[in-house]
Amino acid sequence: MKVSYEYYVDTFNGKICQPEFEDLVEPAIDLVKGYAEQFIAPWALEKDIDYYCLELKRAVCYQIDYLQANGGLNALNGTSDLDLQSVSKDGFNYSYGDRGNKFNGVPFSSVSAYMIKSELRRKGLMCRVAKRYD
Predict the structure, then answer these.
(1) Which phi and psi (to 5°) does residue 15 adopt?
(2) Binning pLDDT at 50, 70 and 90, where does residue 109 land?
(3) Distance (Å, rounded) from C-alpha 89 to C-alpha 123?
(4) Of 3, 28, 24, 8, whose CA–CA distance to 108 is shortest?
C-alpha cells in the first residue's frame, strides 16, 4: 500500500507539511496493516495484507494526523502526548482519565480503527468462524 503526499493533500485534504508527512507515512502504514491483521482469522491470514485489496488509504491519512497531533515521531518512541496523566501548578491539580486509543503502545486513531473494521467487514474478513478440518 502506498500513500503519496499528493493523495494526502489533494484527496484527503491533510494539512501537515511534506517533511513531517514523509516521516510519519511508513510507520502509519505499518500500524494500519498491523491493526487490520489482528482481526483476520489466523488460517486466512496471508503473508502480505495487500493480498486482500483493502482500501485503507484514508485510514492511513487519519492515522498520520493522529500521530502528528499526539507527539509526531515521539509518539512512535513511546513518549506520546497521551501519556500525560496529571498537571500540577501552585496548588492546582488536574488529572486526566483515559486519553485515547493505543495500539501496541502507540496512539491509534479511533476513526482509523472504525474505517479498518468497516473495510474488513465489507470484504468478509471479520468472520472468525472455526475452520473445519475434515
Answers:
(1) -115, -10
(2) very high
(3) 51
(4) 28
Q: Whole-angstrom Cα distance, residue 112 to residue 36?
A: 10
Helices 57-69, 18-37: axis angle to 10 degrees equals 120
pLDDT of residue 114: 97
Q: Which of 11, 22, 27 is nearest to 67 (CA)?
A: 27
pLDDT digits 0-9 by tens, 53-72: 999 999 999 999 999 998 88
Which helix (DSSP H) or strand (DSSP E) does residue 121 occupy?
helix 110-122
Instruction: Select from 100, 98, 118, 113 the least CA-distant residue to 28.
Output: 113
